[in-house]
Amino acid sequence: MKQAEIVVVGAGPAGLSAAAAAAQAGAQVLVIDENAEPGGQLFKQIHKFFGASEHRAGQRGVDIGHELLEEVEGLGVDVVLDASVWGIYDGSTVAVASQEYSWRVKADRIVLATGATENGLSFRGWTLPGVMGAGCAQTMMNVHRVLPGQRVVMVGSGNVGLIVAYQLLQAGAEVVAVVDALPRVGGYPVHAAKIARAGVPIYTSYSVKEADGDECVEKVTIWRVDDRWQGVPGSEIELDADTVTLAVGLSPMAELAWVAGCRFLHIPELGGHVPVHSAYMETTVPGIYVAGDVSGVEEASCAMEEGRLAGLWAASAAGRLSVAAAVAAAAPHEASLARLRSGPFGAAARGGKLAMDGRRDEAWGQTLTRGGA
Amino acid sequence: MNERRIEIHPILGLRPERRHVTIHFGDRPLPAYEGEPIAAALLAAGVRVFRKTSKRGEPRQLFCGIGRCTDCVMIVDDLPGVRTCVTPVRDGMRVEEQDGRGRWERERGGGEP
Lengths: 373, 113
What we know:
Chain A has 373 residues and is an alpha/beta fold. Chain A has helices at residues 13-24, 61-74, 134-143, 159-171, 189-197, 255-259, 300-317, 323-340, 347-358, 360-365, and strands at residues 2-9, 29-32, 78-80, 83-89, 93-98, 102-112, 116-118, 131-133, 151-155, 174-180, 202-204, 206-212, 219-224, 237-239, 243-246, 250-252, 264-267, 272-275, 288-290. In chain A, strands 1, 2, 3, 4, 5, 6 and 19 form a seven-stranded mixed sheet that branches. The termini of chain B are far apart. Chain B is mainly beta and 113 residues long.
């Protein structure tokens, strides 16, 4: 069996940051990702990031991705692509499927940085071709340079909905409308202003009633929702559209933590069920760490800071870094995370992480259905 | 290649030049670029139905685009259930609409596995 001091699952912003921090501390690191290219979802983020310069604000995700890759390569980290991790045994054996063969690797420490997946939204016709995640549209247009549709209805006015709506315009699509069931725009006003200036109507307190079409979306009907989220008959507006993109939140992709036997809590502010973890990013299974969206959905800037922390503490636990040195090295990343979570959009995540901490005992009281920690 | 291909982008600039390949969707030859996922090539060609569901025969296409949801699976070179959003095209590749779970070539009377 292969051996690795630290195995990182996922080569997105969190995983690459964890790998860099651990390798910098002298650890031998193996990163495994199922995609053909590293970078996770960074390469479709062609907008400038918000926040202070220490969080790489003003830089575009795609450029940050290239920098991270260079850093990791420079540190001699082994990155295996096109390989899916499908199991973790005894908290230390990682089972992997590559295209042609299966293999296992024995890891001293494991960092799970598997990210998140987009939520669906149920309405009549939501399974029709043409209804897709906003992130899917983003991948197709910004990474593969193919327009997902010509006339798009964006559902959700949070930052993802607003930013992707603007990127659809940049790519040459028409955004017919942005729709949000909430009574006000959810994302930054500056993003909303950009698309409003481009002439895109934003319907707040509106939701999709149905998408119609023979074999794909040809028409979208939206309607007003009352204060109990019920559609108001008679308020329908028919939109001529071939695509509906859903920006209605993300859920942590935590299957590997489940199979490894990690304890979970349901924290809505973090996107749903999250593996309980300490400030050292360690889960309830000793030696298994989490970082990024899998530990609670936040921005990519937070994922990178959490990745650094997970990498540092995993390397320290593996004996590569004294606790004192790890504390010193972690301090700037902790401070940076605290600042990222101090704004209006970070506050929910901070609350979620605090709630998780406060409810640790509850997680230990649960009966495990799988795994065996 | 066509109006769905984003040749010039205000932020990303010109589309990087890549080698042209041809894939076959049913008996229809489609142009594609080396390295792009099958789903991108089909989307660019205006293909809206990738598969039909097994019970109700409903059309499906793309949903997550990153290999999670399996909405976009098709029969690729006789292998059913291939996630077209994360599987790169190859010159001469045969891509077919998948009916339900699809069938393996050997079940259809093809060669040994």
